[in-house]
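Weekly modeling sync, notes
Attendees: AB, CL, MP (scribe)

Item 1: holo prediction request
CL wants a bound-state model with NDP before deciding which constructs to order. AB pointed out that an apo prediction alone won't tell us much about the pocket. Agreed to run with the ligand included and paste results into these notes for async review.

Input as submitted:
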Amino acid sequence: MFDLTGKVALVTGASRGIGRGIACALAGRGAMVVAAARGDHALAVAAELTSRGYRAEAAAIDVTDAAAIAQLPGDIVRRHGRLDIVVSNAGITRDQLLARMKREDWDAVIGTNLTATFSLAQAAIRPMLKQRGGRIIAISSVVGQTGNAGQTSYAASKAGLIGFAKALAREVASRGITVNVVAPGMIDTDMTRAIAEKVQIDWAVEIPLGRLGTPEDVAAAVCFLAADEAAYITGHVLAVNGGMYM
Ligand code: NDP
């Protein structure tokens, strides 16, 4: 089940946290994985995967570099013959109350979380249209569904991904390309640890399933949406949030 042998996948933000978990899970199911992050940050995960016998390589990319992002899918197709799965996962927060939010922080969050997904999806659908198939998966957030005080920029970027995915899903459905969203809740990564240091949160109260999620919880949902078994699912928002939002 969810065998991805022969598929070629690109995961942004694959150096750590959720993206690393997704890269490992896709590779573990047989996909050739291009793990992307800034500079040499994704080298370690690619090396770890190849040392375990999986097919993987690192790509040095800043997702806010639109020209570089526009080229990446074409480069992957030239090297590996195809591109089947694109996971737009790289993301940042610059949390602040709106009254105090700096325009540059707003722009950074929207640029990294939303505009980069536009650039990546636009470049990726070209080979996918030719292949007449593909999977685009955006990593949104429960905050894009519920809002959260102090996170107007982050919530706007993550809600924007949902509208973007639903619109694109309708554009490319006739060519066998699906576009879906995974919306994680609170997942145990560097990003959440930074928030947890600022505010003490009782996860058992906030989360019906009583624990933080893991990168592997999110990665399992991505593998499902990436697989042939999910061919009839598009424009969907798959929550992986322990029941935080139902
Ligand atoms: P981390 O902060 O642990 O990792 C972020 C990843 O994004 C890193 O790999 C980082 O790579 C990459 N990244 C950030 N900016 C850029 C950039 N400009 N160009 C390329 N890569 C970049 O985050 P998480 O793993 O926690 O989050 C991953 C995604 O999941 C994000 O989109 C986040 O919004 C979302 N999410 C996370 C939740 C959580 O609870 N953790 C909950 C809901 C959603 P680099 O090594 O280059 O810095």
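Recorded for review: Strands lie at 8-12, 32-37, 56-60, 85-88, 134-139, 177-184, 237-240.
Action items: CL to compare against the apo run; MP to circulate these notes.
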